[in-house]
Amino acid sequence: MAGRGRSSFTKRQKERSRQEKQREKAERKAQRKLEKPEGSEELSAEDFSAVAEQWALPGSTPDEYGNE
Fold first, then answer.
1. CA distance linking residue 27 with residue 55, whole number of Å
2. 3, 34, 49, 65: most buried, per Cβ within 10 A?
3. What is the rounded CA–CA span in Å between residue 62 and residue 54?
4. Can you give the pTM of this predicted structure?
């Protein structure tokens, strides 16, 4: 096994680094999920339907800044 070149070593290092980053990212994601408050202020499907209904009204064309 001592006959391996430098490229094999660097490939293994890069792969380990990639796996470590992936694991850390998954841990951060899981931590954010646990810390997420139950009554968060995120938009729900009802919010989207209300906006869609508003846009469907004649004469109400929202511009890019949300002003009518």
1. 40
2. 49
3. 9
4. 0.45
